[in-house]
Amino acid sequence: xxxxxxxxxxxxxxxxxxxxxxxxxxxxxxxxxxxxxxxxxxxxxxxxxxxxxxxxxxxxxxxxxxxxxxxxxxxxxxxxxxxxxxxxxxxxxxxxxxxxxxxxxxxxxxxxxxxxxxxxxxxxxxxxxxxxxxxxxxxxxxxxxxxxxxxxxxxxxxxxxxxxxxxxxxxxxxxxxxxxxxxxxxxxxxxxxxxxxxxxxxxxxxxxxxxxxxxxxxxxxxxxxxxxxxxxxxxxxxxxxxxxxxxxxxxxxxxxxxxxxxxxxxxxxxxxxxxxxxxxxxxxxxxx
Length: 288
Fold this sequence. Notes:
There is one protein chain. By secondary structure, the chain is α/β, with parallel strands linked by helices. The protein has a single domain (3-284), classed as NADP-dependent oxidoreductase domain (TIM Barrel, Alpha-Beta Barrel). Helix content is 41%, strand content 17%. It is built from 12 helices and 12 strands. An 8-stranded parallel sheet has the order 9-8-7-6-5-4-3-12. Strand 5 (71-76), helix 4 and strand 6 form a beta-alpha-beta unit. The chain is globular, with a radius of gyration of 18 Å.
């Protein structure tokens, strides 16, 4: 699998990042199979969060075997310093490790959430405290929504986050305002040599009332190989993107691995996805 430099952190991360949100509500046996599939597929970067159900607990038993082989990232969704500090330490316990490579402030997608996280007694202070204590290697930020790129640009003005995780896919790119915000973020990311990871690669649309919710993702994902290959190919054609987390459903992992192996041109990918008249932003109606 292709590896890209994770900004100034220097780690050579697989372009597919294991999105451990998929482990939030599965048995350990299912988790074990999925983790092994990811490792065998060449993934060396794992992304999880305290808010992802039992995901940290499912990863924990693997740490003794793989901790020195992977870049490990988790997230705190808390907004005040003390509860974030407690959550960071709880994540270490659940993950059965004494150090996390990257601690991300989770779901900071608008200025209100950014203000809460970066206030004097906000969760950023807990993340910095954990870094100074040697519990965390670096601090990043993530977020959903149409305002995420502009919010993350402002975040980088306030604090030198080592990484950003923001949404990108072809249907978002078609929005001129969104594209302008994303491009401004890319410029600052490059200036600071931060890592830029992107999410919602294989999102197709919000779930509709007449569609069976047959995946554990909160949005309806693409679940056909040709469409997943197109979506993955298009995002990875952006050389500023250091990696994309796999979708939050273990059943999609194999198709994502295949998509990375068999990429097509960005032009062909866009042509295929333009043929879907149901393709739309997942942020029109979010369940959180």
